[in-house]
Amino acid sequence: MQVERIRALKDNYIFLLSDAATGTAAVVDPAEVAPVLRALERRGLRLVAIFNTHHHGDHVGGNHELLQAFPELQIYGSAQDRGRIPGQNVELADGDTVHFAGEPGRVLFVPGHTLGHIAYYFERSGDLFCGDTLFAGGCGRLFEGTAAQMQHSLARLASLPESTRVWCAHEYTLGNLRFAHSVEPGNAALAERLAAVEHLRRREEATIPSTIGLELSTNPFLRWQSPELQRCTGQHSPVALFAKLRSLKDRYLYL
Predict the structure, then answer these.
(1) Which of 127, 155, 240, 246 suits 141 as a labelling partner, its CA being 20 to 30 A distant?
(2) Which CATH number is 174's domain given?
(3) Cα 187 from Cα 184, distance rounded (Å)
């Protein structure tokens, strides 16, 4: 299974999964249809599946038109998103398995950003498609869920092997790391990563994928045991520390 980033909208990524042996493809969170169709035509691939992580419009915007172009398309999404994902015809729950290119992908229920959010973990290839739950250097906002739900979801993802590639759905890394450095300035690994990402973004290069190992060392939303973050937030329990950090990040966006 090969993974290709497709840029969409302002800062979205759609992920094109391809199987060279069969000439088939799947996409994760098609924000819009045109870039997907261009990529399929360029690669000579037939689309067979859409893997949606959640119902937000910037993740499902291309569903209907892709279904019109490929009427046999399987459109996967959380059972809790029933009626909110256009064209959905397969409902998934935690622990279910999807298949593509002969590889099984485990469905992880990771609510917080939304109540029905799921992620897809392909253990054999080491690929995690996590939508807006975990970002490179950050995490999604709490639009529907609670801090406790999100912290639990992030802990599940953080427990995956450190070599796992993290394919998150937005190019938010630079802003995330600038916030991270503001709350944990003593983290040398974070300072090094921030400098590297600044260089990449000056060249308009992508910062995705990340890895679980890199996130564990530099993403404040996974670093609940950091003494510096505990001092910064005045919190020690993972949920309380996460909630404080998320509140700080929400305000940081608008400074």
Answers:
(1) 127
(2) 3.60.15.10
(3) 6
